[in-house]
Amino acid sequence: MRSARYTITMFDPALLGQVAAADGPVALTGARAVSADANRLLGSAVAHVRDHVLTDPDVDAHPMLVPDTARYLASATLRALPHSASDGEAGGGRDATSRTVRAAVAYIEENADRDITLADIAASVPVTPRAVQYACARHLDSTPLAYLRRVRLALAHADLQAAEPGTATVTSVAMRWGFAHPGRFAAAYRSAYGRAPSSTPRA
What we know:
Elements: H1 13-20, H2 36-53, H3 65-80, H4 98-111, H5 118-124, H6 129-140, H7 144-162, H8 170-176, H9 182-193
């Protein structure tokens, strides 16, 4: 090999454990992706962070954006590469109750403007992260973090409706609520509200 370009991505090991909702550290156990689709997703995630998030001069103005992006990248990595948490599921089914969901939903809705994690949601109940995941899957047909994104999307929608013309851009509102990828934000918004965010009626 005469020349090559590499994009090196490093994680705090605790982040992988946090995203995997594991009881301890999570280690990658192989360098070969588990599937071609997972490998493409990981490559796309790394390229997006490198080319769009890290190059944005205003990224530090949005406190939720960087940690949410780091978790997104860690999630793509765990989906693509074999790891020590993929060989079994932790317990937690006995706590996957409607009470767990109600407590988790209340915490998410009260703290959606903060940088909160799955571990934070679980600790607020309090149950294990795996129990929150099971409870949300059983009663909401969703994951806790997917529900958090749904709440933030609704808050972004409210901000766009309330904004006076010329005072806020779609991108700035999206970034405020942790949506780093404008295209994905627009697609999620259109799916939820039937229109592009740029066409939302303003105050």
